[in-house]
Design brief:
The chain is of the alpha/beta class. Helix content is 31%, strand content 23%.
C-alpha cells in the first residue's frame, strides 16, 4: 500500500509567514518528518508527495528513509499501481492501522465520508481510502487530529510530550541558551537557537526557532513564533506572537529583519557584500550556536576591522574569542588544536572579502551545522546579549607553528623560492626554506596556505595531490598511516600498498582518524606537506625528477553545475550509473551541484565532467 500526501497548503494555524504546513514544527520536528517516519514504520511500500516545494524536498532528502519517496505535481499525473491512503491534510497519526488497512480492498474506491458519497473516484487507484479532516468518518478507536488555532497547536505538542519519549528529547532545541535563573516548565517547547534571559518564567508555551526572551519576562500558555523578540519585563498570557515581532512592555510593533544567507563559500548579506562590519558582527554572533570558543584570523590587514567586529559579536554572545591576527588558514587550523576551539572563522581576501566558517580541525561545516548557523543569522542573534564573553590573543602561538615546521625540515639542500599571494605566509615560508644552494625549486602556495605545488626544470610540475602521496613515505618511517580527505584520488590505496604504507580517509571531525589528520597537518598545511616531501628527498637521496618518476599521474577536477533537481533524483541517477571516477556533492541551501572527477589527465577529467553534465540536464528536462 502507498500513501499520497498533499503538501500544497501553507501553515494557517499559527502566524508563520511563508511556511509550508509540512514544515510546521511539532516539538522541533517538522510535521512531515514525524508523519513519514510513522508511515514507514507501519509498513507502507512508498509515499508520494503532491505539490512539494523545494524546502519540503530538502527535508525529505535529509531524512534518509528506507521507504522510497516520489514527487508529483497533480494526482492525475500518478500511475494507479496500488491502493493508496490519501491525506488531503497533514494529521497527527494516531490510527488503528489494522482497521484502517481493512478499509482497502480490490473493489471500488472507498471514500470514508459522512454521507458515503465517493469523491474523485475516477482519479484514485482501486482500493484506496481518502481521508479529509472535516468530512471524514474515521474507523473506531482512531483519531485524525488537526491543528486549526494556536491554542490547538500548543495543546497537541503538549500531548505529544506525554505520549512519546522521542518528543521529550527534542523539547528544547539545539543551540538554545537558557539563563541559570530562568524557569521553564515541562510542558513548554523551546525551538532551536533561542535565548532566554535571567529570571524569565515560561509555562505551557511553544517558542519557535531563534526566539529571544529578555530578563524578567513572564509567559503563560503562549505561542511565540520564530525570530520574535520579547523585551525585558514583558508579561503575556494566552497570546500568539507572529514571527519577526519585537514586543516591548505595553507596546507591540512588527519589525522586518534583514535575512542573511550561508552560501557554500562563506557568509554574506543578501548580495555578495562581505566587507561590512555589520555582517561580520552578525557572523561572529551566529557562530556561537556551534561552540562557546571561537578562533578568528584573516589573510590580509585590510580585514583586521572585520575580524574585530566578528570577535565583538561572538564575545557579546558569551563566547571565549581567540584572535589569531593575520595568518593563513593552514596556520589557523594548527592554532585551533592549541586553543581547543570547536569553531573557526577565517576572513579571506583584500578587496572582495569572504567570511569563511569551519568546524573542529578545519573541516567544512556539516549540513546540520550550516543549517543552525543559517537560522541564527536569520534570527539576528547579536541583537540581545545574554552575558559578556572574553577576548584572548593567539598571535603568540604563531611561534609554536613555526617551531613545529622547523622540526620536520631536514638540512637545507635545495634553493627554494616561494610564490604566494599571502604576504605574511610567503615571508614565513621563505624564512623556513632558506639556506639551500643546490637545485632550484619554485614552491607555489595557495593564499590560504593549505595547498602547494612544486616546479623544477628537471621534474616539471609536481601537483599537490602527487606531493601528498610522496609524503606517505615520510609518515611511514614513523609507523603512521597517512590521513587524507575522503574525496582524495582513488589511486592512493594502490600507491600505499606498493610502498607498504597505509591510507586513512577522513570525512569530518567525528571520523576515526580525524585526530591524526589534524595532528599531521599534511592535508591542511602546504608548508608542512612540503617539509615532509623534503624529508623523503633527503632520506632516500632523491632529486625532484627521481621522486616524480615514482608517482602516478593524478588529476582531480571539480566542476560546478546549477540545477533545479532534488537531491534524491541526483542520488538515484548516480546509483543507476555507477562510476568510481566521479563523486557528486550537493551543498545545503544551494542549487549548485559539484562534480569531482579523478582521472590521469585534465582532458579526460573534463570529458567525464561534460558527460555527467549532459546526464543532469537530460534528467532535469524529463522531470520538468
Amino acid at each position: 500500500m502507498q500513501t499520497i500526501i498533499y503538501c500544497d497548503r501553507q501553515a494557517e494555524c499559527v502566524p508563520v509567514q511563508n511556511c509550508p504546513e509540512a514544515l510546521l514544527p511539532l516539538c522541533n520536528l517538522p510535521w512531515l518528518e514525524y508523519l513519514l517516519h510513522y508511515i514507514e514504520q507501519k509498513g507502507f511500500q512508498k509515499a508520494v508527495l503532491l505539490a512539494a516545494d523545494e524546502r519540503v524536498r530538502r527535508l525529505v532528502e535529509s531524512m534518509h528513509l528506507k521507504m522510497p519517496v516520489y514527487y508529483a505535481r497533480t494526482l492525475a499525473a500518478l500511475h494507479a499501481d496500488m491502493p493508496a491512503l490519501l491525506l488531503r491534510r497533514l494529521c497527527v497519526p494516531e490510527w488503528d492501522m489494522g482497521e484502517l488497512l481493512s478499509l482497502c480492498s480490490d473493489g471500488a474506491v472507498r471514500v470514508i465520508q459522512a454521507d458515503g458519497t465517493p469523491a474523485y473516484a475516477e482519479l484514485h487507484p482501486q482500493g484506496s481510502v481518502l481521508l479529509e479532516p472535516e468530512r471524514t468518518v474515521m474507523a473506531e478507536n482512531s483519531e485524525f487530529r488537526q491543528i486549526h488555532t494556536p491554542s490547538e497547536y500548543r495543546q497537541i505538542q503538549q500531548k505529544l510530550l506525554k505520549s512519546s519519549g522521542k518528543f521529550r528529547r527534542t523539547r528544547i532545541g539545539e543551540g538554545s541558551r537558557i539563563a541559570e535563573t530562568a524557569v521553564i516548565d515541562e510542558e513548554s517547547i523551546i525551538g532551536n537557537d533561542c535565548i532566554i534571559g535571567e529570571n524569565a518564567k515560561i509555562s505551557g508555551c511553544s517558542l519557535g526557532s531563534g526566539v529571544q526572551i529578555g530578563a524578567d519576562v513572564i509567559l503563560k500558555d503562549c505561542v511565540i513564533c520564530r525570530k520574535a523578540l520579547i523585551d525585558a519585563g514583558t508579561h503575556l498570557e494566552n497570546a500568539a506572537v507572529p514571527e519577526n515581532t519585537v514586543l516591548c512592555p505595553d507596546m507591540g510593533t512588527a519589525q522586518s529583519r534583514k535575512h542573511a544567507v550561508l552560501p557554500e563559500d562563506g557568509i554574506c548579506e543578501g548580495l555578495p557584500k562581505w566587507n561590512t562590519a555589520e555582517t561580520a558582527l552578525k557572523a561572529g554572533s551566529a557562530l556561537t550556536v556551534l561552540g562557546e570558543s571561537i578562533l578568528i584570523g584573516y589573510s590580509h590587514k585590510s580585514a583586521a576591522s572585520l575580524a574585530a567586529a566578528a570577535a565583538a559579536g561572538a564575545a557579546a554572545h558569551g563566547a571565549a574569542v581567540w584572535l589569531a591576527g593575520e595568518c593563513a588558514l593552514s596556520q589557523l587550523i594548527y592554532l585551533s588544536g592549541l586553543t581547543s576551539c570547536p569553531v573557526m572563522l577565517w576572513i579571506q581576501g583584500e578587496r572582495v572579502i569572504q567570511l569563511k566558517p569551519f568546524g573542529k580541525g578545519g573541516f567544512p561545516l556539516t549540513e546540520q551545522q550550516a543549517n543552525r548557523v543559517w537560522q541564527a543569522l536569520e534570527a539576528g542573534t547579536c541583537s540581545h546579549i545574554l552575558k559578556p564573553g572574553s577576548l584572548h590573543h593567539a598571535q603568540e602561538f604563531h611561534a609554536l607553528w613555526l617551531e613545529s615546521c622547523r622540526k620536520l625540515l631536514p638540512p637545507p639542500e635545495f634553493e627554494i623560492t616561494v610564490s604566494c599571494a599571502n604576504a605574511a605566509l610567503r615571508t614565513a615560508a621563505q624564512e623556513l626554506f632558506s639556506g639551500g644552494t643546490g637545485q632550484r625549486i619554485t614552491l607555489s602556495l595557495s593564499e590560504d596556505g593549505t595547498k602547494v605545488s612544486a616546479f623544477s626544470s628537471e621534474s616539471g610540475m609536481i601537483r599537490h595531490e602527487q606531493l601528498l602521496l610522496l609524503s606517505l613515505l615520510s609518515v611511514r618511517e614513523e609507523n603512521q598511516p597517512l590521513a587524507v580527505p575522503d574525496s582524495f584520488h582513488l589511486s592512493a590505496e594502490s600507491f600505499a600498498e606498493q610502498y607498504h604504507g597505509r591510507i586513512i580517509r577522513v570525512h569530518d571531525a567525528g571520523d576515526m582518524g580525524a585526530e591524526l589528520y589534524q595532528k599531521q597537518g599534511i592535508c591542511t598545511d602546504g608548508i608542512k606537506l612540503f617539509a615532509h616531501v623534503l624529508r623523503v628527498l633527503h632520506q632516500r637521496k632523491l632529486t625532484p625528477a627521481q621522486a616524480a618518476a615514482l608517482l602516478p599521474e593524478l588529476c582531480t577536477v571539480q566542476h560546478e553545475v546549477t540545477t533545479s533537481l532534488p537531491r534524491q533524483s541526483i542520488e538515484q541517477l548516480q546509483r543507476s550509473n555507477p562510476d568510481t571516477r566521479i563523486s557528486i556533492m550537493m551543498p545545503p541551501y544551494s542549487k549548485l551541484v559539484k562534480l569531482r572527477v579523478h582521472a590521469d589527465s585534465v582532458e579526460t577529467a573534463a570529458e567525464i565532467c561534460g558527460f555527467w553534465e549532459k546526464k543532469l540536464r537530460l534528467l532535469e528536462s524529463e522531470e520538468n
